[in-house]
Fold this protein.
Amino acid sequence: MSTSVLASALFRPHRPVLALTLGLALAGTAYSQPIPATHDQKPGEKPMTAPKAIVLKVNGVVSYSDFGAKGDGTSDDGAAIAAAHKYANEHGLPVKADDGMAFYIGSSKRTITIETDTDFGTAKFIIDDSKVEVKDRGANVFQINSQLKAFTPEGVSSLKRNQANIGISLPGDCLVVANNAKVKRYIRYGLNQNNGSAQTDIFLVDKDGNVDPNTPIIWDFDEITSISALPLDNDQLTVRGGHFTTIANQAESKYTYYGRGIAVRRSNVLIEKLRHDITGEGEHGAPYGGFLNIGNCANVIVRDTVLTGHKTYRTIGSAGKPVSMGTYDISANRALNVSFINCSQTNDINDRRYWGILGSNYCKNLTYDGCTFSRFDAHMGVANATIRNSTMGHAGVNAIGCGTFTIENSTINGWTFISLRSDYGSTWQGEFIIRNCVFIPAGGAKAAATIFGGAYSGMHDFGYTCYMPERVVIDGLHIKDGNAPENYAGPAIFGNFNPKNTSSDYVEKFPYVITKEVVVKGVRSDSGKALRVSDNTHMFRNVKLTVLDAEK
């Protein structure tokens, strides 16, 4: 029988045992044939050896040991893991890590590309950042990529807020990112002050040019300096399992953010049952940009996953004064429809030595469901967000943005129930809904209870008009304010956003748009004191307060 006939027989159905046997026989000495060197291979490294392709195809799955990984916890297996995924990507095969092995990944700036389903199983991964040079810090260890390529759509020269159709057709559903570098937004104020960022928007568009109403255009673009479209993957890619441990970097405490995690750059991805620990944090270190770094994608679910908050280090900020550096185990940037379901963290969510676990920018439709995390956060805006069935720790809920923010069936331990970030103008253009929640001010420490905290002087240009939430609905809220300070007047809906704005004599250079209506039902406090609008009665004098269950 010829070799071609034998090879064809390998792929006939109903004969898996025979196929595997024949495949191994055919491999012969070819089993140890080297595969060509790739960009994943460091200079001087020996090329990986691989089984003959026919054997892997019969098995239907790729493992790291197939490509020479030792899995002993000390040998650097990065190149072998990269070779395994490269082969899997080229042949459309899933990857299954060898259960029980421990894969050490050293200081190489190599990024391992994942384009097929991957099951890390019970394998351990040791990511050693202790010797990673600052110049190599940004390279993520893994990156989940699409095989689809972004392109520049022609014929879009301007856009309007809430525009329903962009006026062109596309090859299919796409993630569109538009920029106007001539307009600056998010001009930050405070210890990390800056000159703002180019106006950016991200939204979903179908083949007929229709904008998904759940990801609306939120800015007017009189000019577009750049625009890109990335086709959406229709099939879900799953990355499952794995116990990852980061040996923390020992760099100087400066804003030199480290990557060294798992980046998600593909739409329609499920990450589940993953665990990330951190060890080796000392007296100094550089911050992290997120072990899970989700960006330029849509429809991502992280489920049943355990992560770890990073130790907080201090440095000198852009204003020339000491500042605590934000450092994250989760980051989301330019991402749409991202959900965290039944996730938690290893360290105490109320331990203030560790920074809030999430940082995000330019996102829409972020969701926590069944999560126990130290914080929810949106720096440069989120459009629509939901927290349900969750517990937030010491860093609470921090956000600016627009749309509807819903918090329901959740417990919040922050200094305030919601912190509207003052460094970005304490702005929310839209509605807040609070339903059946518990508020423990400062996690039970001595503190007054305030629902909305923030600050706004009216003297700084943030690059946009700043808004208080137009409407607030509170339907069921238990305020545990039994440990309040002396002279506590009772829980306030709004903090004193500007102690200087106490009369009509105060004129804001950049006027704040104040809340129009607050609707309240089912609020009770352990102090027994009634909910009130604010200490700053002048600033919030025009807020309409409706108490639906007030005694008549």
